[in-house]
Design goal:
The chain is α/β, with parallel strands linked by helices. It has two domains: 8-72, no CATH class; 87-342, Alpha-Beta Complex (Spore Coat Polysaccharide Biosynthesis Protein SpsA, Chain A). The strands form two sheets. It has an eight-stranded mixed sheet, with helices on both faces. Strands 5-10 form a two-stranded antiparallel sheet. The protein has helices at 8-12, 15-26, 38-41, 44-47, 51-54, 57-72, 87-93, 106-119, 135-148, 161-170, 192-200, 221-226, 232-246, 266-272, 284-294, 315-319, 321-339, and strands at 96-102, 124-130, 151-155, 176-181, 184-185, 204-210, 252-254, 261-265, 298-306, 308-309. It contains 17 helices and ten strands.
Length: 345
Amino acid sequence: MAYGNGSLLEMLIRPQSIIAFCKRFKTKPPNSQLNILIPCLETPTYAAAPLKSKFLSVQRVRWALCSLRSRLLSLDLKSQGLFLVPAEEHDAASKISIVVAVHNAPEVTLRCLSSLERFAKGAEVIIVDDGSDHQVIGEILKEICMTNHWTLISHEKPLGHSRASEVGISASGRKYVCLLNSDTVVTPRSWGAMVKAFESDLATAVVGPATSFTYGPQQVLRAYRCRHFWTDEQIWSFAENYTSRYQNVQDKQVNFAGGFAFFIRRTVWDELDGFDLMLPDYGNEAEFCQRVLEKGLRIVTSKGSYIHHLGRQSYGQTFGRSAILRRSLEAQTYIEKKYGSKFHQ
C-alpha cells in the first residue's frame, strides 16, 4: 500500500474524506458496505468511552467515523504474530536506564509496563510511584517489579513529574536515561536509534523518537489519528514498518524533544542539575532543553525509533484538561521570562 501524497491512507487522514467515503458506499451496492459503521460502535474502545458521550449523537457519530478511519489506516498492519527484537535493540537497551513516573491510571500503566517486559529486556527499569491513591496500581507495581527485578520507589504523596523523575534518575546507573511516560507503549524499535544518535556525536545531549502524540516533528499524523484505536500488535507492526522506511534518514536537529520518552545523556543531566525547581510537571523538558542549547549541545529526533504515546492519560487524568492548559501556559510564561530573547522556540 502506498504512503505518498494522494494515496488512500493520506486522503483518509482528513475527516472530510471519510464523510465522502461513507457517502460513496451509501449509493453503491453491496448493502453490507452500508453497515460498515455498526461494528465500529461495538468495538471495545467505544464500549470503554465515557457513558455520557454515548448518548450524544454527534459525539457517537464522530467516534464511529474515527474508528472507521482507524480501520482503514490499519489495513497493512499485523494484528497478531511474532515481533522479534533485533540484536542491536537488545544491545542498546543494556545501555539505558528507563525511569517511569506513575500516578494512578492503572489501565494505561499496566499496558506500558507490559510492553517494557517484552521489549526492554536488559535495560535498567526504575518505577516511581508518585503518591498514587488507586489501590490497584500499588498491587500492579509491586507484582510486576518483583517479577522482573525492577526497582520500585514509592512516594506517600505526589511530588509531581519533575521530582519523581529526578528521584528515579538518582537511582539509575546507565550511560543514558529515558524518562518514559506511563501512558506509552514501547515497541521492538524503541532503543537502537536512540543510542546510535548519542554514540555518533558526543555533543548530542537529548534524543527523541517518533511517536503518535506530541508537539513538533516527532508526531506521525497517521499514528496520531489511530492512537486510541490500535491494539498493541498493530502498534508494534506500525513501528516495524515505519522505522524500516526511515532507518537511513539522517537525524533531525531541533530545539526541543517531547517529554513522553525523553532520552538524556546521564553526564549532561548531572552537569545541568536536573529540572528547574519551579516546574513540577509541565514545561520541565522544554526548560531543560533551553539549558542544553545554551551549553552548545545538540538535541535531535530520529525516525529510526518509535514509541507510541496515548497522551494525557496519567497525570493529565488527575488534573483535567483546563488545569493542564493553565499549567502549560504558566510554564511557558515562566520559561519565556527566564530566557527572554535567548528563548529558542
